[in-house]
Amino acid sequence: MKLTDEWFTALAEDEAGKTVIISGRDNIEAFRISGKFKNRIEVTWSYNGEGMPTDEEAKLMESVGDALRVGAEKNKLAILTGIYTGAGKRIWVFYSRHTGAFGEMLNEALSTFELLPITIYSEIDIDWDDYLGTLDLKCCSDSDE
Questions:
Q1: What's residue 4's pLDDT?
Q2: Residue 105 placed within a domain
Q3: Cα–Cα distance between 53 and 46 in angstroms, integer?
Q4: DSSP assignment of 34-73, as one string?
Q5: How confident is the model at residue 103, as a pLDDT?
Q6: I need a labelling partner for 86 at 20 to 30 A (CA). Which of 11, 55, 56, 97 fits?
Q7: For residue 1, is it within any domain?
Q8: Torsions phi, psi for 90 (to 5 deg)
Q9: In degrees to the nearest 10, what's the CA dihedral of 46, 31, 130, 48?
Q10: What is the mean pLDDT, run by run of 10 residues, along the chain of 145 residues?
Q11: What is the pLDDT of residue 143?
């Protein structure tokens, strides 16, 4: 399985009607159908404001996101499938082989940063239903252009 670095961008709204920008990973079907990445993990950074993060926050978020992605994908422990930004949150969505190993990687990857305002949530999503929903947004976004 070859991991590509192809992404698409789509716009969505949260439950309150606030705009959320979605960056979704494309062409990772082989990882989805392999059945090896059944744990969906969200790393959520909440920030002040209802719109987009400040430039300073965005810069730090990029560094954190890069560290997480490198750590997760180094040995294909997890695949970053989406980044959602807006409405006071940035959410990185990963599909992982093992939640415990992902937690260890996360602690190591973020060890050089000061305490961050993040929360972590995981669930079993064997069929990648969340990811497929993101792909549906790509379809709708493409047809609106």
A1: 86
A2: yes
A3: 9
A4: HS---EEEEEEEE-SSSSPPPHHHHHHHHHHHHHHHHHHH
A5: 96
A6: 97
A7: no
A8: -120, 130
A9: 10
A10: 90 87 94 96 90 91 97 95 95 97 97 96 96 81 46
A11: 42
Residue 144, token pair as written in the block: 């609106």
| Percentage helix, strand, coil for the chain under 3-state DSSP, each rounded to 5 | 35, 35, 30
Instruction: Say if CB 53 and CB 120 are below 8 A apart.
Output: no
User: What pLDDT does residue 104 have?
Assistant: 97
pLDDT of residue 84: 96
99 in helix, strand or coil?
helix
Q: Does a structural domain hold residue 49? A: yes
**Domain interval for residue 122:** 6-144
Q: How many domains does the chain have?
A: 1
- Residue 71 within a domain: yes
From the list 13, 117, 103, the residue with the least C-alpha distance to 61 is: 117
Task: Tell me which residue of 37, 103, 72 sits closest to 80, measured CA to CA.
Answer: 72
C-alpha closest to that of 24 among 94, 127, 75: 94
> What's the confidence (pLDDT) of residue 140?
60
pLDDT digits (tens, 9 = 90+) for 112-134: 999 999 999 999 999 999 999 88
